[in-house]
Amino acid sequence: MKLVILCTTGLMAGLFYAYSCSVNPGLGRLSDAGYLSAMQSINITAVRAPLMLAMFGTALVSVVLIVFAVRGWGQSFAIPLLLGSVLYLLGSIVTTMVFHVPMNDALAALDPTAASSAQPWADYLSRWSAGNQIRWIVPLAASVSYGWALLR
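and the corresponding structure tokens:
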């Protein structure tokens, strides 16, 4: 189970990293209306089984591993296992649900061609991108922590 969680947290970190280093900059080459429309489409497409299973399946395993770490408290693997689980849950799940989902819901209501969408779009883009940095850095740290636990 430790190896699976190591891989899935790395997978999620890589997904969000790809947004930061290639998807967002690539979409940024489009017009604002094109970029906004593309993000609306991505947000709809993302809420499907492949991403949801990876993201929330990893969360479920993280919760199980928290219990495992607490039960094994005092063992050499307990602290890195607990740390990795908490980092993943905070960095991926909490950040997504509390920060990104409400922003994506507000974005869904915008008309990409309306002049009134320009300022909300600019605000969205800078805030969403900054928050996305957390979504890849923290799960990457979780993956490192799980690797540390695996070596114990």
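(Above: one complete record from the training split.) The two ends are 14 Å apart (CA to CA).
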